[in-house]
Amino acid sequence: MILGYGGLSLAQAVPAAEPEGVVGRMGQWLSSSSAENIYLMIAVLGTTVFVIQFIMQLMGGDAVCDGSADSIESMEVNDAEAVGEINFFSLRSITGFLMFFGWAGFFWGNKGWSGLLIALCCGLFMMIMIAMIIYLMLKLQHSGNINPEYVVNQHGTVYLTIP
Questions:
Q1: 69: confidence class by pLDDT, cuts 50, 70, 90
Q2: Cβ distance 93 to 48 under 8 Å?
Q3: Cβ neighbours for 28, distance < 8 A, ≥ 6 positions apart
Q4: HSE-CB of 134 using CA atoms within 13 angstroms
Q5: Which stretches within the chain are classed as H helix?
Q6: In a 3-state reduction of DSSP, which class is residue 1?
Q7: Contacts by 11-15 with C-beta closer than 8 Å and gap 24+?
Q8: Residue 120, φ and ψ in degrees, nearest 5
Q9: In a 10 Å sphere around its CB, with 0-12 CB exposed, 13-18 middle and 19+ buried, how is residue 70 labelled?
Q10: Do the Cβ atoms of 96 and 122 come closer than 8 Å?
Q11: Which letter, b or e, does each residue of 88-106 get, where b requires 16 or more Cβ atoms within 10 Å of its Cβ?
Q12: pLDDT digit string (tens) for 17-55?
């Protein structure tokens, strides 16, 4: 025990500095256990929705019906408009954001504002990665079929004898 004023320890003699203003109080709240519980709830919600989507995808169903370009089966093969743009705000991207934001906030949330910044960066990173993966998967689509409308009145070479 380090003695300070009249038998009190130095830590007891010097009171802790109160946070100044709204920003200081908000940073203190972000590093508290109640913020940790909110991060945990967000993480569990995002992870649960992600697991449900994953299981339904494995079973052959499509867990997403939000009208976005997530579903490869629901798109036309030559739908250039849907393939030509990245959709950051699909249900899968938002689920990935919530999952990674929640877990990063849960693990690094005790750092206050920097923990919130880390959680936001992790969530945005996952959101961008999921959107890029979906975009690249949609670019892999190709139809090997020939549309009969395009070959009417065209010249071609026949390799087999026609009976």
A1: very low
A2: no
A3: 19, 112
A4: 25
A5: 10-13, 21-30, 33-58, 80-83, 91-108, 113-139, 148-151
A6: coil
A7: none
A8: -65, -40
A9: buried
A10: no
A11: bebbbbbbbbbbbbbbbbb
A12: 555 676 666 666 666 678 788 888 899 999 999 999 889
∠ CA 95-120-138, rounded to 5°: 40
Q: Which two tokens stand for residue 162?
A: 């026609």
Nearest alpha-carbon partner for 76 in 130, 141, 135, 140: 141
The tokens for 73 are 């089966």
- Other beta carbons less than 10 A from residue 122's beta carbon: 20
Residues 96 and 52: beta-carbon distance below 8 Å = no
Placement of tokens 């919600």 in the chain? 45
Distance between CA atoms of residues 86 and 147, nearest Å: 28
Task: Provide the CA 64 distance to its chain's centre, in angstroms.
Answer: 14
| Backbone conformation region of residue 9, classed left if phi is above 0, alpha if psi is from -120 to 50, else beta | beta
